[in-house]
Every structure is written in structure tokens, then in C-alpha cells.
Amino acid sequence: MHVDLTGLSALGGAGSAFIAAISYWWKTAHERRRATRTALFYLLELHHVLSRVRSASSWLKSNLGPSLKGSLHSRGIELNEEEFAASLSEAIPAFEQFGRLQIENSVAGISEGLSRSLVDLAKEDPLLAFRLRGRDQLLLMPQQLNDFVSRRAAEASAPSSDSSNWSGPEEFFSNVSLEELENAIRATASRCDLSTRIRTRALLRSAAEQLGGIDAVAKRVTDEFAASVAAKKV
Question: Which residues cross the membrane (predicted)?
């Protein structure tokens, strides 16, 4: 029986080439998914921090006064209008400092991580990386957030600071669009697997509910400040 070794050799070579092609495709797809998921992670982190800043700033503007007054009342402390205004002006810097400490490290990590992840993503999915990097406002968001928090901390601690003139996050969010960020998140998630896409959509929908913890943290800080005011009255 004659065996055509040439044919077998060619077949074996074709099989090896096919296996190599499949291996390369799998490796490339894996790297692309890894780079995309990493970019998605930092975009979600940025969205989380920005959402908390907006929620916390709105809470300070709308609820700090009533919350502080209620906490003082529960301790049997009644302040006249002038005394309460003075206490409120002391409370705002305390909240600003607390918020700044919570945000600064996160912003630094997000800014560096997002930039690095886009560099990696450009190697595996240049079109998506180009779309994300083309959103100049998106890449500037971490620095804008850091500048906003630093500026508010400086204004709140200034001797001339007037709590009644608290402007909240309106000016900041007129320049920083959460909608633009959410569009970038959806575009990135669309390149991931179905499970990741579904979970990302659910996360964005439930973002407002997840910020409920802001109220609890703010209430705790308010109670601590009210306790210090009450101690001075003893």
C-alpha cells in the first residue's frame, strides 16, 4: 500500500496553520476583551464618583441646614438665627474636607488608570479607543473633578465664606456631562459579552438607588458636628 507522504505533509501543514490561526484569533480576542473590560471599569468608577459628588453637593445645598437643626434639637440645643448661621458656616468646611479626602485618591487612580487603559485598548481595538479618546471632555473629567473639589474646599474654608451663597454642583456639571460619560460607557460595554452588557445597563439604571448611602454618611457627619456644638454649650 502506497501512502502519499507529500499529501499528508501538506495536510498536516494546513492543519497546523489552521490551529495557529485559531490560537492567534483566540489570544487576540481575549486581549481585546481584557482591554475593553479594563477601560469599562475605569469609566464606571468615574461615573460612580461623579454621581456621588452631584448627590452629595445637592444634599449639602438642600438638606444640611434642616438636618443640622434637627440634630441639634434632638440634643436639646436651640440656637437663634445668628448662632445657627454661624454653626452652619462652620459645618460646611468640615463637610468639604471630609468629601475632599474621600475623592482625591479615587480621582488620581481613575485618571491614571483610564489613560493607561486607553493606551492598551488602542493596541487591540483602535476604533473604540479612538472614539473614547476623541471625547476630550471625557478624559478631562477626573482633573475637572479634582479642581472642583479643591476650589470648593478653598472657598468654604475662606473667612469670607457665606453658606447662603452655596452654589452646589451646577457650574461644575454645566461643563461635565454625565450623559456623555454614560454614552461612552454604553459604547464600551457594547464590545463586551452579553452578560457584561446587561449588568452595565442595570448598573446605570440603578445608579440613583445606590447613592442612597450618601444620606446615611451625611447624617452621621452632621450628628458628629452637632454633638461637638452641644458639647460647647455644656
Answer: 6-26
Question: Using CB atoms within 10 A of its CB, is residue 135 exposed (0-12), middle (13-18) or buried (19+)?
Answer: middle
What pLDDT digit, counting tens, does each position of 28-50 carry? 544 557 888 898 998 898 888 88
pTM for this prediction: 0.68
Per-residue pLDDT tens for 96-148?
776 676 676 667 678 788 888 888 888 878 888 888 876 656 667 777 776 76
66 close to 158: Cβ distance less than 8 angstroms? no
